[in-house]
Amino acid sequence: MNKQELYQELSAAITKRKHVSLVTITRAARKEMIGKRMLLFSQEEIYPETGIDRTLVLKLAELCFPFFREQITRSAVLYGKDDPITVFHEVFAPPPHLIIAGAGHVAEPVAHMAKMLRFYTTVVDDRPEFARQGRFPSSDDVRCQSFHSYFQSVPLNEFTYVLLVTRGHQFDVLSLQQLLSRNEKPAYIGMIGSRRRIAGVFEQLRTDFPDESFSHLYTPVGLDIGAETPEEIAVSIFAEILAVKNRKSGAPLSSTIRELAKTGFHERRKRKR
Amino acid sequence: MKEIEFIQTLQNIFFTGEHAALATIVRTRGSTPRKAGSKMIIYPSGRIIGTVGGGCGEGEVIEKALKVINTGQPVTHEVDLTTGLLYEDGGICGGIMDVFIEPLL
């Protein structure tokens, strides 16, 4: 495979939202090796550019595979009996997948924001007059399908975010039960609803799924910013989704500094947000 | 620019046989304006697509890239942003980054 073909493979993989990383030799004693590349799809599936011998390909794959698994972009050095070789391992993570179940009022601004924030977005609803591409011009995938059948087979992984905002609470709950009964787990399931209704739902879920921790279930959905309109609710929901995705608390950044301001800055804090 | 668009731009360069160089940040230490993986395409005219952080550091990379286009030999160039803290242009970063620069042929 030459460089051009390698880039073709890479862009095809990104378009298909496959996990792939690009490994580039950046330093080597043999000058002709510098700039040589390979694609890593898994530990077994490696596509090297012509000119790197098989042994080196396998050694580099072994060196880079832990970073591939952890999705880390970084440089690494291969030491051995020959001169050290530096490679750059670069992750091309597929965009996170947001599934919006229910194509109603809240779905519209959420779908808009999803586009801005570069999520791959699916909107699903069983009502043809709502599940129309025309209503969601910026969404990647608009489906008119029953929630039940959609959630039965949609791929779920740590990059999947599910938002349940259907027209009736019973559809949300049914979708949720379907999701919880799957072996694969999404990163986030947000379900809209009032506190009182949700208390009842939880009672039922605990009986149906006694072993479930519900740690990835967020209901009522969103951060507490007093959201009322669909747009405000969308901001509240997306703030929460981003906090989950980026593993942060969602608390105001000013909260820690405000404490310090009261007690006095005893030590200079590192310049870090 | 989205990753995919950047790669399509690279593919296009290969396709048309244009001469250009690709600069990629491959390692950073300390505070740098952009992280590893950030890329920039440099054309012989000095026109660029993408950024490796702007400012004086980027200027250095562009200069090196023009050499790489001529020699055809890829290099790793270290950009040291620790000296001259508080540049006149208001640069506030104080780190070091390794930038891999390769010809696109």
TrEMBL record, chain A:
Residues 98-241 form the XdhC Rossmann domain. InterPro entries: MoCofactor_Util/Proc (IPR052698), XdhC_Rossmann_dom (IPR027051). It comes from the Bacteria. This is XdhC family protein.
Automatic annotation (TrEMBL), chain B:
This is XdhC family protein. InterPro entries: MoCofactor_Util/Proc, XdhC_CoxI. It comes from Fictibacillus terranigra. Residues 17-79 form the XdhC- CoxI domain. Pfam families: XdhC_CoxI.
